[in-house]
Specification:
6-stranded parallel beta sheet; alpha/beta
Amino acid sequence: MGKKIVYIVGDLSYPNGMSQVLSQKVNYLARHTDYDLHIILTEKADKPWFYAMDERVKHVNFDLNFDDLYRVPLMKRLWVFAQRQRRYKRLLRDYLMRERPDIVVSVVRREINFINNIPDGSRKVGELHFNRSSYRQFHKRWVPAFICRAVTRWWQAKLVREIRRLDRFVVLTQEDYRCWAPDIKNMQVIPNPVSVGPDVQADCQAKRVIAVGRYTWAKGFDMLIPAWELVHRRHPDWQLHIYGPGESEKYRAQAEALGLDGTLKCEGPVKDVYAKYLESSIFVLSSRHEGFGVVLAEAMSVGVPCVSFDCPCGPRDIIRDGEDGILVERDNIEKLAEGICFLIEHEDIRRQYGAAARSNVARFREEGVMKKWIELFESL
């Protein structure tokens, strides 16, 4: 059997981009290599995984449930977090010392604070699914701004020290690479992989626009909805469908307040998102920030052109503006609406961009991206 590789993931019970990509990568390695693959989770041991996992992958769940702490008052949260972090450190150390893996892959979450000190003999790799400008930011409205800035600087400096100790640090985009480059040298870019979609292409004739993502502030649906009001004024026969997990009620209420309840649908997550892409003619991404933006590449892989905020980081690496999609100034609601309207009003360009998108996004296909990961593992 080949190298023993341990992935430290956190949670796989909830549908999100990071869980989807990590599941996809581990499944690919299980099918195409002789690696002995293990996954360590820390959340929700009593819940089933959202994404299917190859039966050859071994796994353990420490059931620490850090994510539940976000509903706890801050001072109590700090005390409980410290307790769980100590337990996590002990459990992870015991596991790695017992298993003696060749490589440990961390998603640079809580374990980054101590993983480099575990003397299990493994090579340590970090892969970050967030961009630097939005990671480890401390913001509390009731805390003075200068304290928030000081905590953020301390928190990020500690992160940089630990990342420098890794054997390799992987980021998802060239844009983010440039952000880290002044401080980090043991770094390379490997984008998220896109699995091959259905062997068909969207005809881009349906009067439907699609957005996919968690119902959170980061995804910017609160900006997409007023942008859609502007689109609706000019094109009342078109619809916008949003798909994703989370609390969608406030977004439905926002749409209803703007009189959009008949033209804008806030749906839950779907297993077969490609079927929804194929029912659509335009994909829109309204995020304030991304780690990569895999939903852009997914939509493009079946020939759906995209309109996206030029947010950090990802859209600029994926979309070739004016060739296979449209990038607009970040957080500019009017420009986002204009981009959508342009593709609605120019069917020939919409279909042209869709065909180019399907071709251009091939650089993110699973086989090529996973080859880079295997080469990295073998180099270590």
